[in-house]
Amino acid sequence: MIVYVTMPQLGETVSDGTVTRWLKGVGDKVADQEPLLEIATDKVDTEVPSPTEGTLLEILVDVDTTVVVGTHLASLEVDSVGTDVTAPVRAAQIARDSLLTGRTPPTGLADTVQIAARHRHTPLVRRLAVEAGVQLFDLVGTGPAGRVTRGDVAAAAAAAVEAEGQVNQGSDLDEGRRADDGLQSFVRRDAHESEQGERSMVGQARRDVALSASPASLAVVEVDVTTSSGHGTGSSPDEGHPKEHPWLVTVLGKAVVEALGSYPKFNAQLVEGETLVIQRQQNISIAFATSDGRKLSVVADAGDLTSLGLARRIDEAATHWPIGRRPDQSSVVATFSVTTSAEAGPLLTTGIIPIGQVAVVSAGSVVERPTVVRLSNDERVIAIRSMVYVALTYDHRVVDAAEASQFLGAIKERLELGHIDVHR
Amino acid sequence: MAELTYRDAVARGIAQEMRRDDKVVLVGEDVAGAGGVFKTTVGLLDEFGPQRVIDTPISEQAILGACMGAAMTGLRPVAEIMFSDFFAVCWDIVVNEIAKTRYMTNGQVTLPLVIKTGNGGGLRFGAQHSQSIENWAMAVPGLKVVTPSTPVDVVGLMAAAIRSDDPVLFFEHKGLYASKGDVPDGEIVDALGTAKVRRVGTDATILALGMMVPRAILAAEQLAERGISAEVIDVRSLVPLDTQAILGSLSKTGRLFTVEENPRLLGWGAEVASIAVEECFWDLDGPIQRITTPHVPLPSADSLEDLVMPSADSVAAVVEKALQP
Q1: Among A21, A40, B214, B258, which one is most buried in terms of CB atoms within 10 A?
Q2: Where are the alpha helices (DSSP H) in A53-171?
Q3: Against a cut of 0.90, is the pTM above it?
Q4: pLDDT tens digit string along A171-212?
Q5: Interface of A with B in 178-207 (CB under 8 A)
Q6: Quick check: B162 and B79 in contact, CB under 8 A?
Q7: Does B285 touch chain A (CB under 8 A)?
Q8: Which residues contact A148 (CB under 8 A, 6 or more apart)?
Q9: Do A195 and B324 touch (CB under 8 A)?
Q10: Residue A348 has what pLDDT?
């Protein structure tokens, strides 16, 4: 990973400085805060320390050259484990930056993005820059005191589009970069909060995957719902459950909503295959079977509901879902989907991820099965337990197997604890 | 279409609703025989008679107590508090009784009651007869708060207020009573909780209320001559507040200014600014700025009164400075 050393702001009125001496040469190892170079300004002569431990990769400003505050002075190669100041960037972006700044990109710059927030920008400019893929770091503004205006962002974005056109003509380099990129964590760290929620960009490689390969992946867990169902206590779960839908729908819905609270990335929308918007509201689409046929409920803002409240809203929002047809349109846009099987239905089903959503949870039918149960004294017995397979089909562009496993584990844990009471 | 003064529009709006619904009655000091001290109820006694247009003794508590009881038992009264400053002597009945009745009776008793009042300064009436107190009312849950700035809005919003099943405080600006505007013939009914764009612009959003609206429009005209395109929104209704219109404009221009006649601390613009920052932070291209009267009682001296209240010039100057490249 590459980290830039930049010309520091050495006083409110100081806008530039001159490099007077380099204390390290290319290839030298430097320690964190070890002096790298000396600079002179109107007010003060000082040393510039290294921002991190690493190897001096390239000197970008020669001695006796005067540069403005924020200019990159040098690049350092840093062991990337455990750092989070940079994020992946595609080759086109690097080329774009070099066109914007008029500098040749240093070698090995493939995965570097500087965080824009190091300079002061208005919220609007920061949002526009993220949306346009413009790096504010390198922009020289035309506003007061060099402030970047929204016009500057628009101009830089237009220049970048032009630059991208040029880069695409020779793309051997591009291919290699994209392969690398695919291995990187692809949610950019310079995400910002919009009114909808957190927003971040998906890299080009992921976009290419989206066009060429099916991104759906599957994980399944077996869940013991004996406690949740109330079978252990002798009372029937649907007895007193005042609802049209089966008890499992409420219990699973509630468990999913709680798990989404802990793993908000699953409650995201993928916009145009490239922008991930983590939604604050949990609008849960729940499909289930009743004696009256198959139904679908979209419950808006399910995050704050009690189990009983959720159960009530599931009934209120239920619309028919005729076999082989799309369900009636809901006015609420779902952010996450849950499907359940009919009683004595299939043991395992996998849902189709609705377009724009990240994952779908599907439950098979509950069956009684002899199961090994570990008692509190660690003794093991075989008991008749109510078991169900819960499957998570997820978009592998957005979440990886480890995250899927954790999310599914959270759902399983909630269901098995039996804390979710359909009567409350 | 007829050209009406703001004061005549008040009487027209009330008359329109009194003709339509015989449950509507008008109660206040000098509203009947004298046609209102600000002549906002001229002709109503003649048309509707002393049973429905009622003069009262000088007691704001009595006016509002009687009207609250009337509203509870089936009438739709319009009460007048002559100067809005006098709300201070009957605030208990407004805040502790009128605003809370629907809630404390679990919705069993609603109060279809309008309290109209002469509000605002600029007329040399001194500190005790010139205040802008919309923000007092805005702070009390259970009240709707309306401040029209044009004759046609006076008619339409008065009709909407009278038809509301909940109490509405209707602030007429004393400084606008003589202003004129075209009012279409026939019934006019507006909607509470809606703002109006008075002038379209792209560089800055200026929110204004009551008499500050014409001043903000003048300021926008000055700014246009200096190359700044300001959008002016007449807020009209503080409760409910048309956040969609306000935030939509802010999202477009990136800059927000409020022009408030009230003293600065906790004026309505403070709440709007808070909402804007929470909802539209990523659309802001600079600080939100409030242009208000300073935190002082309004001075009696003519020159000082003019100095402290926001003017077209002061609004234009603040906006221009803030937008300077």
Answers
A1: B258
A2: 91-101, 123-132, 150-167
A3: no
A4: 444 443 333 333 333 333 333 444 455 555 555 545 554 544
A5: 192-195
A6: no
A7: yes
A8: A119, A121, A125, A129, A136, A139, A140, A141
A9: no
A10: 87
